[in-house]
Amino acid sequence: WLRGDNVMTGYLGDDVGTAAVLDDGWFRTGDIVRTDGDGFVHFVGRKKNLIKRGGVSIYPEDVLGGFETVDGVAGAAVIGMADAVFEQIVVACIELAPGGRLREVETEARRRLSRELFPDKVLTVDKLPRGPSGKIVQDALRQEIERQLAPKSAGDATTAERVLEVIGATFNVDPATLEPADDPETVMGWDSYSHMELVISLEEAFDFKLTPRDILRMRTIGLVIEVVEGRL
Description:
Blueprint: H1 15-21, E1 22-23, E2 26-27, E3 31-35, E4 41-46, E5 51-53, E6 56-58, H2 60-64, E7 73-83, E8 87-96, H3 102-112, E9 121-124, H4 138-149, H5 159-171, H6 192-206, H7 212-217, H8 221-231
Parallel strand pairs: 8-9
Antiparallel strand pairs: 1-2, 3-4, 5-6, 7-8
Helix pairs in contact: 5-6, 5-8
C-alpha cells in the first residue's frame, strides 16, 4: 500500500514481508552494492538471491558474467538449490541460441570464471521462464531444475541415457555435454586406463560381458552406445 504522499506502508496482507523490508520508515530493497575508490556505486546482487555453498557466499550475478555474453547463449540464469552436504549448490541454466553447443559454452565459462564461481551443475532449457517484465520466474526455474536433476529409474531411462550416465561417471564429465562423435581426443580423461574402467562399469551396469572385439570397437561415444545396444 502507498499513502497519499507515495510513501510505502506495507505489502497487502503480508505483515511478515512488511516487517522484513520496512525499518523506521525506510524501505530496505535488499540490493547489495559496493563503493569504489572514486565514489562510484556498483551493484553486486540481491540479498535474497545469495547462494551459500559450503560456507562460501556466492552472488548469482558474479556467475552470470561468465555465461551471458558467450557466443551461443541466448539467455542464462543462476540459482541456488538445496543440498544435503553443502547446504546449497550453484546451478546455471542456459538457453542456447540456434547452433549453440553446451560444451563450447562451458569451456568459455571455465576460462572466464574462477574455480570457486563455476557452477556445480550446468543445465540447458528450451526457454527460460520469464514474467511479463522479462525477469526470471524463480519458482518455475526451480521446478525445471528439480525435474532435470530427479534421479531416473532404469525403467525410465533409455539405453543411450544409461550409457551416457556410466560414461559421465567414469570420465568425470557432464553426460549432457557428450556427443556421438566424441572420442578420446575430445573427452578429457578418456585414456587407455579409464577405457578399461568404462568396460568394467558397463558390464556391471548392464550385466553382460564385452568381447575384445567390442572393447576395441568402442572408439567414440556413439560406438559405445551402439555396442551396448547390440549386446542387449
